[in-house]
Amino acid sequence: MAEDEVCMIQIDGPRRRVFIKFTNSTRRQAVLQDKDWKLKFQHDNVEFSQVLIEIAGMGMRRIRIASLPPEVPDRKIRDVLTKYGEVKEIKEELWTMAYRYPVSSGIQIVEMSLKYHIPSHISIA
Known about the structure:
Layout: E1 6-12, E2 17-22, H1 25-34, E3 38-42, E4 48-52, E5 59-65, H2 74-81, E6 85-94, E7 104-114
Antiparallel strand pairs: 1-2, 3-4, 5-7, 6-7
């Protein structure tokens, strides 16, 4: 795979996934068919694992937005994310209910129906 064919590689360690975003959908499909949707991965201890390859889905997703000042209105978040799909709901994530009063964690949860992939980092405000 040539370097100019890959847009981004992202590793999701806890879920044991690797995402490769291609700039060319034709090339992506060719790689998937060429590898028969399966790969063998060799671990450091020389063991092999079979890895399934699939196209990452769109559909309904919950997106967590961190490092956003609390004074940024939901309308601004909605305006920025609308180009990636339909925003259904925006709400604040709260700390555990063990506290007497609800306390915001500073993270916004956006439920939306994706039409396009969202970049890992976006400037909202």
